């Protein structure tokens, strides 16, 4: 007689925070007065180059007295982070992962 018992318990949590100030440029003014903004910030830390690109739509009334806007107040907020340097190979899937994503993208 053969008996196979398996019991498992797992808990996974991924909480990331990102706090920074990035200067943006007004790219367009919409008919309702809202501002379309875009900006890029590049850092070189120990030969790891990190580029952060942000864009979105802000209301002029959300601009604070210190000329800042909290990201929670940015409509259509988009953030893209790109890495170059020593860390770059560890931030993208390998060739097998890319093949499997192409075959089965779920």
Q: Report helical residue fraction.
A: under 10%
Q: List segments where confidence is low: pLDDT < 50 over at least 5 consecutive residues.
A: none
* Share in β-strands: 35-45%
Helix-strand sequence: EEEEH
Report how far apart the termini are. 39 Å
Mean pLDDT across residues: 82
- Assembly type of the chains comes to single chain
- Structural class, judged by helices and strands? mainly beta
The largest beta-sheet arranges its strands as 1-2-3-4
Task: Give an account of the 3D structure.
- The chain has 106 residues and is mostly beta strands.
- Helix content is 8%, strand content 36%.
- The protein has one helix and four strands.
- It has one helix spanning 95-103, and strands spanning 25-29, 35-45, 48-58, 75-85.
């Amino acid at each position: 007689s053969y008996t196979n018992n398996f019991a498992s318990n797992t808990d996974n949590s991924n909480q990331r925070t990102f706090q920074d100030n990035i200067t943006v440029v007004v790219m367009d003014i919409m008919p309702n007065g809202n501002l379309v903004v875009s900006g890029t910030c590049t850092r070189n830390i120990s030969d790891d180059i990190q580029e952060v690109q942000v864009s979105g739509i802000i209301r002029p009334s959300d601009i604070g007295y210190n000329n800042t806007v909290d990201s929670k107040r940015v409509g259509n907020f988009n953030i893209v982070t790109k890495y170059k340097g020593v860390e770059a190979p560890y931030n993208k899937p390998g060739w097998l992962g890319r093949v499997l994503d192409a075959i089965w993208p779920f």
